[in-house]
Design goal:
single chain; about 240 residues; alpha+beta; three-stranded antiparallel sheet; 6 helices; about 20% helix; globular
């Protein structure tokens, strides 16, 4: 195969969902990646897109140790880098705020490379996920992600049936048509939104387009992971038997 048709091994590993590109470079440099049964340890190596890629046992063991944390974010905290005087939600991840009886206790190593996957704005609350695992991040925020995110949204205003139909499909933001959503009434002032994408302030902007004002927004599910009984301001680890999809 010509060099033009080959791709960087680390990029291919990320595209296949094996790990993130950063993790791939780490594994490659340590000789923990095999391509068609042979170890590849040279960073920048290009390979055919149809090669078989496997990880050595040490890398697989390391992946199992990667932490994913579920936080019930309160209103008033930002998901990532804040501006004064606001606080980042990661500040709530402390030993005192850990919920439940998990045998895994919080350690300094859990913060290495820990990043938000799927933000919530400062005025929203609910399920916020932090992870060290590039595979999980890609499932949530990757360009090809089809993972559902569910929200309970309190609104003010009138919503005739034709406008409700538009919320489900037909609206555009930033010049692009939105993917089909599932939007239905839960009660007289709350809607349930299920989305497969996450544009900036998407639900609030969608509601504005049909004449509604959002007065409260709470994310209650990402894929198969539900907020459940996790108290506001507390967090827990994603357990080994829990999966997003």
């Amino acid at each position: 195969m010509s060099e033009d048709n080959k791709v960087r091994l680390s990029k291919l590993m990320a595209e296949k969902g094996i790990c993130s590109r950063r993790e791939a470079d780490d594994y490659i440099s340590r000789g923990l990646v095999m391509v068609n049964g042979e170890v590849v340890s040279q960073l920048g190596t290009k390979v055919s897109p149809d090669v078989k890629i496997t990880l050595e046992a040490q890398a697989l063991k390391q992946q199992k140790r990667l932490a994913t944390i579920l936080l019930n974010k309160p209103v008033g905290y930002v998901s990532a880098q804040p501006e004064p005087p606001y606080q980042p939600a990661i500040k709530l991840i402390t030993p005192q705020n850990q919920f439940g009886n998990s045998r895994t206790r919080l350690k300094e190593e859990h913060f290495k490379g820990l990043a938000v996957a799927g933000r919530l704005d400062i005025d929203s609350q609910g399920l916020l996920l932090f992870t060290q695992d590039g595979r999980i991040a890609k499932k949530i925020i990757g360009e090809e992600s089809k993972l559902e995110k569910e929200y309970i949204v309190r609104v003010q205003g009138q919503l005739p049936p034709d406008k409700l139909k538009l919320l489900n499909f037909g609206l555009s933001l930033d010049g692009k048509k939105l993917k089909p959503a599932k939007v239905e009434w839960l009660n007289e002032d709350q809607l349930r939104f299920v989305l497969q994408e996450g544009k900036k302030r998407q639900i609030r902007r969608m509601c504005e387009l049909v004449g509604l004002k959002v007065t409260g927004l709470k994310r209650v599910r990402i894929g198969k992971i539900r907020l459940g009984q996790l108290p506001e301001g507390q967090w827990r680890f994603l357990e080994e038997d829990e999966h997003l999809d």
